[in-house]
Amino acid sequence: MKNYIFGNKCIALLGVLALLATGTATAAGTRQLATGGASTIEGSAGGGIVPWAAITGYGTGDEIGATAFASRVDTGDYRLDSQGAAVGLFNRIELSLARQDLDLITLGPALGLPGAHLRQHVVGVKLRLFGDVIYTDWPQVSLGVQYKKNRDFLIPSVVGATDDSDVDVYLSATKVFLAGVGNFNAFINGTARWTRANETGLLGFGGPLHSGRRLQAEISGGVLLSRHFAIGAEYRRKSGNLSGLPEDDWRDLFIAWFPNRHLSLVLAYVDLGTVATLQDQTGWYLSLQGAF
Amino acid sequence: MRRHFVLHTPCALLAMALLAVAGNVAADGAPHAAADASTTTADAPARDDSLYRALGGEQGVATLVEALLQRVYADERIAFLFAEADRNNLARLIREQFCNESGGPCAYSGRSMAESHSGLGLKEKEFDAFVEDFIDAMEDARLPYRTQNRMLKIFAPMRPDILHK
Ligand code: HEM
Ligand code: HEM
Hints:
The complex is a heterodimer. Helices cover 10% and strands 49% of the residues of chain A. By secondary structure, chain A is mainly beta. Chain A has a single domain (2-291), classed as monomeric porin ompg (Porin, Beta Barrel), CATH 2.40.160. Chain A is globular, with a radius of gyration of 18 Å. In chain B, helix 3 (57-73) packs across helix 6 (124-140). The A-B interface holds A 26, 29-32, 60-63, 91, 134-135, 137, 177-186, 188, 219-223, 226-227, 232-235, 251-253, 269, 271, 280, 282 and B 3, 6-7, 9-11, 13-14, 17-18, 20-21, 24-25, 77, 123-125, 128-129, 131-132, 135, 145-147, 149-150, 152-153, 156-157, 159-160. Bound molecules: protoporphyrin IX containing FE (2 copies). One protoporphyrin IX containing FE is lined by residues 78, 81-82, 85, 90, 93-94, 97, 110-111, 116-117, 120, 122, 126-127, 130, 155, 158, 162 of chain B. One protoporphyrin IX containing FE binds at residues 78, 81-82, 85, 90, 93-94, 97, 110-111, 116-117, 120, 122, 126-127, 130, 155, 158, 162 of chain B. Chain B: Residues 1-22 form the signal peptide. Chain B: Pfam families: Bac_globin. Chain B: Heme binds at residue 117.
């Protein structure tokens, strides 16, 4: 309970910090709508589960942009709530914080642990190496790091995870094709992630099957149907390290709404496959992002 | 069966998007080559003027440029940059350029982008503000979204010639 109160304060504080940081910049930056992407469950700018090379918010090379988000994935057996905030500095560096809370709705009672949750914190840094999502012929390419700290390591340790914290390193390339598909603007993003996370870290890191990091491919793409709506799909390869708890790749189909520079809403149908013995985890994802 | 379908829809969509983009990129060479050729030979027959027609021809281009300049001159983020410019002359040159770039029967008589924007020291945020005004102007002119995208596709690559000069 105490933790929860602290947590909300922490988010509020982050929001205030973000506002202060942007107090001197023009409101919400000037880059074109949707070019900052949405917020992933791990806090980095991107779709819902796959990060993009884009720097969060709408700040250009002379501006600072900030975003805050809250999202929920609900499959019936699991519910993952994530909240966080990110700051984009001069369209070059992105700093992000997120916390995740996975409610083991079905598994908890089955394990004799009703109300069990798995929580994780993620600190991200992303550096745009070169390119611009819209204006260069080649893609925008960024290098990112996500430091993850599992906050409920008891269950992960019992099922064989070796570490409660670790670092994912990823390289993302994102390109927008103006009038790319039937004169609609289209985007494609590829991400290579070097990770040893089990279920993104919610089940810890490393394990009996494999202890070192492995490279995983992630891809997303979509089409902007209008200035305010995008549809697309994401795919994220995963391979856990826990024996007896094989993981599946994640996929989703999304529709994103960007009514203005301050707000975006993403709705997705997700397919997480088998998660910790429970099969066919499909359900809904909703994410709300505010940009300052 | 249901599961199989669910699993493969995203992949199929992605594959389609990739193919479409690849197809478009490959097909790109042709219209550009044609446009380049026709700027040297005034009335080359193979010129694709579909975008010019989608803009509404001479009248449509005039309306669009007027809407653009109204937006720009009223935009406090960039209006000051136009303080020294001759509005009528600028409108004429941009009309010529839009007409020419969209495949219409006009020659552009102005200076190169690098030359005409040198000394302005344009910042990225000023360029982006201009693009936003441009999109709003295309909305003002009630141009369809896909026509807007075709215009952006033509002018976006000029950014490096215009910025920081
Ligand atoms: C949105 C951002 C964050 C929120 C809301 C948040 C919230 C919290 C809360 C509620 C606690 C528990 C406090 C308690 O036990 O009384 C906590 C502990 C902790 N957090 Fe965070 N945190 C955030 C970001 C981070 C980040 C970025 C890191 C890593 C650098 C981090 C590392 C830790 C650690 C190491 C602890 C203590 C761990 C322990 O007690 O074993 N947190 N945080
Ligand atoms: C792709 C985007 C742009 C296009 C296609 C474009 C087009 C043109 C054209 C055709 C001219 C007249 C050239 C000449 O005088 O010979 C011109 C001049 C000018 N442009 Fe742009 N422009 C663009 C972006 C911008 C931006 C972003 C700004 C400022 C925010 C800007 C400010 C000016 C000014 C102030 C002049 C007048 C220069 C002078 O009279 O010496 N332009 N532009």
